[in-house]
Recover the amino acids of this structure.
């Protein structure tokens, strides 16, 4: 059971107790905030919804690229057909949820600041939870590049800074693998603030940025659009703590092509909110002392689909 928030641990509580809770207001507030709060790791995914009562496993299909034949046709002779290959990829959905408990001394007869503020924070936290689940899936791929000419994470050390040339090499590899850009003819790179700091000191980055500085950012958090890459600075981008040489923190930058991963949920089973008023649990709360606000999603899953279109660039920024 979580700690029940009450007047002994919170100075901003109300002054009275009540068995009346404005459920409709808080439910509407929670849902509105879940829609408005934006995290970026889910933005470039394929979205597949599952029908209800169809199990907990979703199937994705990866179609392999066809290889063109340069052999001309021979009159009257039927050529060999092409061999298509489809790879099935499955992922099981999971249920996630969180809630907060409040004592009867938190005044909820009116629109109380404590309950309202925690409704806001719960919605923000839950959206971040789903975003971090997607982030960790993206960071589990096999397509990895290392700064400073290193070949493993453990050998990365102070001085193995991220460079614009490192990102350009990743995009070059994607182009050679016929990976399409993520959006508007641009690849997308998620970077930590530390990586962004070093890139802004990179001479090639600065030169390209100055040339295109009149371009307005089109994505929330966009740092720059240079060399065909949109750099998006994320506070919750992945950092492998103490993973490098001498305990250096290794920062992960994720470079994406076009929709290379999928997320899914069951139709009609999106994020749900729950408000339980004082005494709503019956005899288990005989004195109407506890109330809760909660949020849950019954089915959510994420899966990498095209490894060649998800690259991880690991480095040790100056401030790491």
């Amino acid at each position: 059971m979580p700690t029940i928030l009450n007047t002994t641990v919170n100075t901003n509580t109300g002054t009275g107790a009540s068995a009346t809770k404005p459920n409709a207001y808080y439910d509407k507030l929670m849902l509105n905030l879940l829609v408005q709060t934006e995290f970026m790791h889910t933005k470039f995914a394929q979205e597949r919804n599952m029908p209800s009562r169809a199990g907990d496993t979703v199937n994705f299909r990866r179609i392999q690229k066809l290889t063109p034949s340069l052999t001309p046709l021979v009159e009257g002779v039927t050529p060999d057909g092409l061999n298509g290959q489809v790879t099935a990829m499955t992922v099981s959905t999971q249920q996630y949820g969180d809630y907060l408990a409040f004592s009867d001394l938190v005044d909820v007869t009116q629109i109380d600041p404590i309950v309202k503020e925690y409704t806001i924070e719960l919605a923000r936290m839950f959206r971040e939870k789903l975003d971090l689940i997607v982030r960790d899936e993206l960071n589990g791929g096999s397509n990895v590049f290392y700064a400073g000419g290193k070949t493993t994470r453990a050998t990365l050390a102070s001085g193995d800074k991220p460079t614009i040339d490192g990102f350009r090499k990743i995009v070059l590899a994607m182009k050679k693998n016929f990976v399409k850009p993520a959006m508007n003819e641009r690849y997308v790179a998620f970077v930590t603030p530390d990586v962004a700091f070093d890139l802004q000191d990179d001479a090639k980055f600065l030169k390209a940025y100055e040339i295109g500085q009149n371009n307005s950012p089109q994505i929330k958090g966009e740092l720059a659009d240079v060399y065909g890459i949109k750099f998006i600075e994320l506070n919750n981008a992945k950092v492998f703590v103490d993973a490098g040489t001498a305990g250096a923190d290794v920062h992960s930058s994720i470079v994406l092509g076009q929709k290379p991963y999928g997320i899914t949920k069951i139709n009609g089973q999106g994020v749900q909110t729950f408000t339980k008023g004082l005494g709503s649990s019956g005899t288990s709360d005989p004195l109407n002392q506890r109330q809760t606000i909660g949020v849950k999603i019954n089915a959510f899953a994420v899966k990498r689909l095209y490894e060649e279109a998800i690259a991880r660039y690991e480095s040790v920024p100056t401030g790491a």
Q: What stands out?
A: The mean pLDDT is 82. The chain has two domains: 4-63+86-136+263-304, 143-261+306-315. The longest strand covers residues 290-304. The chain has five helices and 15 strands.
